[in-house]
Amino acid sequence: MSPRETSEIASVYGAFLLTASSPRSYGGALLPGEGGAMAAYVAEGKRIPRRGEIGLTSDQIAAYEDVGFVM
């Protein structure tokens, strides 16, 4: 990802985490394995699916956003 793309994405979604958090820092409201699954998405540079996006790949979500859908 180029610095320009990183800057544009950060302006929309906020700054990227530079280091991995420990599993205990996810809070107590998650089910077992949810924190690890979210960490895996973040480590791969993918977005964490939100409600309504479950079952879609990151590429499919990006395609919907490219044509104007707000996900």
**Judging from the principal axes of the Cα atoms, what is the shape?**
globular
Sheet with most strands: none
**Intertermini distance:** 22 Å
Counted beta strands: 0
Which runs of at least 5 residues are low in confidence (pLDDT < 50)? none
Provide the succession of SSEs: HHH
Query: Which structural class is indicated by helix and strand composition?
Result: mainly alpha
User: What's the gyration radius in Å?
Assistant: 14 Å
Sheet-strand content, in percent, reads under 5%
SS element count, helices: 3
Helix content: 40-55%
GO cellular component, one term: nucleus
Family: Belongs to the NKAP family.
GO molecular function, one term: chromatin binding
Pfam families: Nkap_C (PF06047)
What does this protein structure show overall?
- Belongs to the NKAP family.
- One of its GO terms (biological process) is regulation of gene expression.
- Residues 24-71 form the NF-kappa-B-activating protein C-terminal domain.
- With 71 residues, this protein is an all-alpha fold.
- It has one domain (3-66).
- The protein is 42% helix and 0% strand.
- It is built from 3 helices and no strands.
Strand and helix map with partners:
Blueprint: H1 3-13, H2 34-43, H3 58-66
List keywords for this structure.
71 residues; mainly alpha; globular
